[in-house]
From TrEMBL:
Domain Heterokaryon incompatibility: 111-167
InterPro entries (UniProt xref): HET, HetReg/Transcr_Mod
Name recorded for this polypeptide: Heterokaryon incompatibility domain-containing protein
PANTHER family xrefs: ANKYRIN REPEAT DOMAIN-CONTAINING PROTEIN 39 HOMOLOG-RELATED, HETEROKARYON INCOMPATIBILITY DOMAIN-CONTAINING PROTEIN
One Pfam family this sequence matches: UBA_4
């Protein structure tokens, strides 16, 4: 079955580094653009929308833009965060994760936080998050491989997975 692929050049939902690179902005100019996003969202939207239907620079495919986050919206008033559970597996098995929303007010809440160096993304790896293929950097893949247990799941907070990296508002909260 052939899946229809559409492309978007509206970068309002793109990860910040993708938007920055696509627009050809320096770090400083991109920082100014982010500030503009909050001060004048309409102007920001007009600046980052490309009029091209078939861009010369590839945009992002709209297959799983929302991915595992689409039904896991956070409620900041309830102090909600996402946690990721590493499902059990052995070394050669694909890494499979489950995301869930929890409240920091839950007295039974138990998790560990992973701190690691993001590094570069020269060798991205793929994992499964709630059944969606998800690209991560090599350092995180190595950490997940080493933290995964063979017969017991493990619950963690990992910034690159628990924060929706394609949602600018969520990134900046």
């Amino acid at each position: 079955m052939d899946e229809e692929v559409s492309w978007f050049c509206d970068l309002t939902a793109a990860p910040p580094p993708v938007a920055r690179d696509y627009l050809g902005l320096t770090e400083r100019n991109f920082e100014l653009a982010i500030n503009l996003y909050f001060e004048d969202p309409e102007l920001y939207s007009n600046l980052v929308q490309s009029p091209l239907e078939q861009p010369s620079t590839p945009c992002l495919p709209l297959l799983d833009v929302a991915g595992p986050y689409q039904n896991l919206v956070l409620n900041r008033q309830r102090a909600e965060i996402r946690l990721v559970t590493i499902l059990p597996g052995r070394f050669p098995d694909p890494i499979k994760l489950k995301l869930k929303v929890v409240s920091l007010h839950d007295s039974n809440l138990s998790y560990q936080a992973l701190s690691y160096a993001w590094g570069n993304n020269n060798a991205p790896r793929h994992i499964l998050v709630d059944g969606y293929s998800h690209e991560i950097i090599g350092n995180l893949f190595t950490a997940l491989s080493r933290l995964r247990r063979s017969s017991k799941s493990r619950t963690l907070w990992i910034d690159a997975l628990c924060i929706n990296q394609i949602n600018i508002t969520e990134l900046l909260v």
